[in-house]
């Protein structure tokens, strides 16, 4: 199994207990660079640094990802491989691309993610501000997704969003609580509890929308 753990924005004390436990018990730990290696150094020293270049050369990035999957796969096929990523693995990270290659080259390997404190939430504490109301988050590319908090009437809201071109919906109720519930598309109910988040996306590519397909 391959587990990606978020290791927070930079302070080793901002890792979750679950992340630290996984890092300590993994058969092997991989990091995408020396910054991540330094962050987890209080918990694990014998880590493998992989190359994830910060470049616009997509062919080079794809080659590096393919090479990294071949390094990780032998461990993930037989035991627990942990891949540490700054922030959160599912917010603007490379883990989705890694998974899209693994699904094709090593379909027997299962993978999951453990959330970390992302720069998006850490920002408010660093800046000393409280954020409320509607917020737009972007890396500069076209906005095609929405996250809506405290959704009490998710079916009504998803119907309105469909009219705006959104075609994928995920409702997450009471995340990581004992009675967590994840509902998708046609499962979206009329009402939901206070601790609910509705995710909506304009999906423009075919296949599994959770991980954009990677060239290989």
UniProtKB/TrEMBL annotation:
For this protein, the record's InterPro entries field holds: 4pyrrol_Mease, 4pyrrol_Methylase_sf, 4pyrrole_Mease_sub1, 4pyrrole_Mease_sub2, CobI/CbiL
Q: Name one GO molecular function term.
A: precorrin-2 C20-methyltransferase activity
Write out the pathway annotation from the protein's UniProt entry.
Cofactor biosynthesis; adenosylcobalamin biosynthesis
Q: Which CDD domains match?
A: Precorrin_2_C20_MT (cd11645)
Alphabetically list the UniProt keywords. Cobalamin biosynthesis, Methyltransferase, S-adenosyl-L-methionine, Transferase
Query: Which Pfam families does this UniProt record tie to the protein?
Result: TP_methylase (PF00590)
Annotated Tetrapyrrole methylase domain ranges read 1-139
Q: Which GO terms describe its biological process?
A: cobalamin biosynthetic process; methylation
EC number from the UniProt entry:
2.1.1.151
Family named by the database record: Belongs to the precorrin methyltransferase family.
Q: Which NCBIfam families match?
A: PRK05576.1-3
Protein's UniProt name: Cobalt-factor II C(20)-methyltransferase
Species for this entry: Methanoplanus endosymbiosus
């Amino acid at each position: 199994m391959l587990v990606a753990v978020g290791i927070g924005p930079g302070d080793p004390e901002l890792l979750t207990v679950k992340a630290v436990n996984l890092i300590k018990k993994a058969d092997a730990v991989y990091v995408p660079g020396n910054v991540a290696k330094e962050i987890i150094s209080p918990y694990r020293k014998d880590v493998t640094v992989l190359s994830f270049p910060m470049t616009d050369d997509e062919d080079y990035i794809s080659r590096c990802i393919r090479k990294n999957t071949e390094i990780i796969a032998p461990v993930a096929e037989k035991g627990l491989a942990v891949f540490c990523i700054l922030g959160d693995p599912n917010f603007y990270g490379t883990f989705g691309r890694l998974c899209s290659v693994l699904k094709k080259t090593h379909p027997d390997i299962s993978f999951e993610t453990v959330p970390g404190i992302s720069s998006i939430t850490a920002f408010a504490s660093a800046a000393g501000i409280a954020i409320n109301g509607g917020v737009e988050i972007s890396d500069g590319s076209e906005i095609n997704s929405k996250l809506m908090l405290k959704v009490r009437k998710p079916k009504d809201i998803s119907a309105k969003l469909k009219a705006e071109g959104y075609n994928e919906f995920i409702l997450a109720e009471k995340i990581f609580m004992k009675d967590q519930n994840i509902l998708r598309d046609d499962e979206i109910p009329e009402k939901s509890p206070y601790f609910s988040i509705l995710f909506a996306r304009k999906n423009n590519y075919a296949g599994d929308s959770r991980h954009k397909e990677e060239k290989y």
